[in-house]
Amino acid sequence: MALIAFCITLLVQLTTPVPPDLASCAFDGKFYGAMASSSGEAWYVYQAPWCWRVLTPWMVSILPLPTLTAFQVLNFVFAWLNVALVGWLAQRICTPKSSALAAMLLYSGVFWSLKFSFYCPCYIDIQTQTFFLIVLCLLEVRRYRIIPWVLALGVLQKESIVLLAPVVAIEQYCAQRDRKKALLYLLVLLGFCGVALAAVRGTITPVNQYLSEAAFRQQLVYDLESLLSFRSQILVNLLSGLGLLWLIAIWRGRVLLRFLRGNPQWAAVIVLGILPLFAGTDKGRFFLYMLPAVTIVAVYCLHPVLRALERRDRVVCFWVAATLLLHFYIGHLLSPAGAPEEVFSRMGQWPALTSVDAYRFIVCAVAWVILTIWLMRRRPQLLQVVA
């Protein structure tokens, strides 16, 4: 599995356009780049909230490489690890032998999972995703004693890791059916995260005044007031952030609901993953918080398709190949090449993408729906098979 994950990661990197120098550390990347560099300007190094996300810049700073190269090397290693972890989760949860490969391909096809960190290497999203996946893997094997320490380290990577605390508590309650113990465990998790956050925020004094709650509330109010103006972009941002994964899950709606009822921790990841969507303007990127869960759910919903694929059903093989092609095309469509302004205009931002990009997204979605209707007519028995 590790070798397959490496090959997929390498393929994604090789098909990602080489970024211009300005785009490499554009937007939030300029803060993380400054933090990792020995010659970073203090105004960038100590700008909140970025200055409190110290883990990735620290790892970059200890590598004996130029800052940008160190980010690129680190991103590749963590991308490889993420793809392998997604494959491991799928192998644990889903029964078809091809589940792991399907999960790794579907996860890697989303622009924000791998390609974004190869295009804008000075971001920390790919390492943040690693912490999410490690916690989900520990949950799967029920290593509850290790998770508080992983979360405490994770909030030094990015404070939003704390969103996993209630997910962990929900899973423990479902496993042990002890409400008091689950609540106590939740308090322990929040306590570990709180101590780590207090330590880093007490140690690093920013040059600006920043309150996470105020920033979230301001963005939430803005998004709600702008609802009518960006409603037409909701579909585009879903395709940007999740590719075809959400359409696959909806297609097998009954299986989806049964899986989420039987695995409430995965439902909690998806529900809590909605909150970061109000943390900024690049909505597609913030779907990363629910991407691992949506990937696993989509692969689970594809059980009968994957079994037919393993039997080398030609119709199903064609559908799977076409689905992966469309899914990767959507991810590659987002890969920008040009100045940072072009990057911003193509990454699923609100208020809008360019009209050409929006139409391409929608055409891909419509093509997949038509393709799936054709599959259901040729192989109606697939919908009758219980996943």
Largest sheet entry: none
Determine the strand fraction and express it as a percent band.
Answer: under 5%
| Helix residue percentage | over 70%
Helix run count = 24
Count of distinct structural domains? 1
Report the span from N to C terminus: 23 Å
The mean pLDDT is: 83
- Helix/strand structural class: mainly alpha
How are helices and strands ordered from N to C?
HHHHHHHHHHHHHHHHHHHHHHHH
Radius of gyration (Å): 21 Å
State the shape: globular
User: Low-confidence parts, pLDDT < 50 over ≥5 residues?
Assistant: 348-353
Number of strands: 0
Short description:
By secondary structure, the chain is mostly helical. 70% of the residues lie in helices and 0% in strands.
Written account of the structure:
Helix content is 70%, strand content 0%. With 387 residues, the chain is mainly alpha-helical. The protein has helices at residues 2-14, 21-24, 29-36, 42-45, 55-62, 67-93, 99-109, 115-119, 125-140, 147-157, 164-176, 179-203, 212-225, 227-230, 234-242, 245-251, 253-262, 264-272, 283-286, 291-301, 303-310, 314-333, 340-346, 355-378. The longest helix has 27 residues, at 67-93. The chain has one domain (2-379). The model is unreliable at 348-353 (pLDDT under 50).
